[in-house]
Amino acid sequence: MALVTTKDMFAKALKSDYAVGAFNVNNMEIIQGIVEAACQENAPLILQVSAGARKYAKPAYLLKLVEAAVIDTGVDVALHLDHGEDFEICRKCVDDGFTSVMIDGSKHPFEENIRITREVVEYAHAHGVVVEAELGKLAGIEDAVNVDARDATFTVPEEAAEFVEKTGVDSLAVAIGTSHGAYKFKGEPRLDFERLKEIHKLIPDTPLVLHGASTVMPEFVARCNQYGGSIPGAQGVPEEMIKEAAKYGICKVNIDTDLRLAMTAEIRRYIAENPSDFDPRKYLGPARDAIRDMVAHKIKDVLGATDKR
Fold first, then answer.
1. Of 64, 51, 69, 43, whose CA–CA distance to 288 is shortest?
2. From its phi and psi, is residue 206 left (phi > 0), alpha (psi between -120 and 50) or beta?
């Protein structure tokens, strides 16, 4: 049992056309629910921490909670920084014990993205830590990431090949039509699989990453709205599209919004049906169970990662 890198996870996934779930964490109950599901499904697991999570829970608490989950369950976990905005935050996470970091230089011009990413790669690799980078811009909002749809750009395959060669990055997040948040598509969902195929063809040994990949599960949206929420028109990436993407080099699938929806839907339901209860354990317990069941479904039915540990 240990904190591990994603190297072996991704090498196995690349050979077998499944993907590893990367789930964002913010507190104890979310971590417990996710790890319980991974144990149940005997699946590889990435727990990732965003800028918003670091601000909310504080890095020391999150690190110790993840370490406690490893001790409690015996499951190996890759602890990943999601959307690190600069070298300093990546360096800090490497020094704190993260086993994987993402440097998101996608807001910068291509050459500057290469320079920043290479700097992070050199530092992280010297400390046994792997690095994810991003090329192209996903639309949507998630914690510190806020990109207008008009500024979103798809990943150019030839640039992806050049980027990987010049940076030495371990995995690459690509933009093929997904977006952050609960409102991913205004019309019919569509991903550019031809673009993904071309990227995978040019860099077949590089694990690719799909950000903004929550399916925004309708049952959770409906339950939130049923018990006082207001989430009209929320729409995510259909599960069949996630399965298809795993055939073309997608080894890591980021999931955050579905965790938030599952937890919030169950909390809303419990409080509405038990108005006299004020013990947080009474509603956080069922919320944790809802996360566990949802993550188990993702691992087994969407990512195909059951028994792949």
1. 69
2. beta
Give the Cα separation of 62 and 28 in Å (integer).
8
151 confidence band (pLDDT: 50, 70, 90):
very low
The structure tokens listed for 196 are 């993904």
Across the chain, what does the average pLDDT equal? Answer: 93
To the query of whether residue 95 is one of the catalytic residues in this protein, the response is: no
| CB-neighbour burial class of residue 187 (10 A; exposed 0-12, middle 13-18, buried 19+) | exposed
Query: Would you give the distance in Å from CA 71 to the centre of its chain?
Result: 23
Packing angle of the helix pair 87-96, 110-126 (nearest 10 deg): 20
Q: CA 88, CA 207: separation in Å to the nearest integer? A: 25
Catalytic residue among 17, 76, 82, 151: 82
Q: What is the pLDDT of residues 217-263, one digit of tens each?
A: 999 999 999 999 999 888 889 999 999 999 999 999 999 999 999 99
Identify the H or E element spanning 254. Answer: strand 250-255
Q: Tell me the DSSP string of 43-74.
A: ---EEEE-HHHHHHH-HHHHHHHHHHHHHHH-
Q: What is the C-alpha to C-alpha distance for residues 97 and 94, in angstroms, rounded to an integer? A: 5
pTM of the model: 0.93
Of 91-100, 177-186, 245-254, give the lowest mean pLDDT range.
177-186
Summarize pLDDT for 132-141 with one digit per residue, the tens. 999 987 754 4
- Tell me the torsion sign for CA atoms 305, 18, 122, 87: negative
Answer whether residue 183 shows pLDDT above 90: no
Sequence-distant (6+) residues with CB within 8 A of 299 are 21, 37, 38, 41, 43, 305, 306
Contact 200/172 with Cβ under 8 angstroms? no
DSSP 132: E
CA distance readout (Å), 40 to 34, 79, 307: 10, 19, 9
Mean pLDDT of 271-284: 97
